[in-house]
Write a structure and sequence with these properties.
Blueprint lengths: L6 H16 L1 H23 L4 H34 L1
Helix pairs in contact: 2-3
């Protein structure tokens, strides 16, 4: 190695840059799925037809999207701060 970056260092740098973004989709899906499961459980417990499932699905989508936007905003600010240094 004559002072150039090795492929392993390039790979490590790539994973370091994209790592925070990899779990965002899973987190969004998990939030929605867990809220739907909670809604279904409440529907069975209180003998309602899809009332709680629909309510909690909407709440899950809204909270998941809020968290997605907040996380992406934070990561973008951090990336800009690192690029400016």
């Amino acid at each position: 190695m004559n002072g150039d970056k090795s492929p392993l260092n390039d790979l490590n740098q790539t994973f370091k840059e994209v790592g925070p973004y990899l779990g965002i989709g899973v987190q969004l899906a998990a939030t929605i799925i867990l809220m739907v499961i909670l809604g279904q459980w409440l529907d069975q417990k209180f003998e309602k037809n899809y009332l709680f499932t629909i309510i909690f699905a909407v709440v899950g989508v809204a909270s998941g999207m809020y968290n997605l936007i907040r996380t992406l905003s934070f990561l973008e600010k951090r990336k800009r701060r690192i690029d400016n240094e």
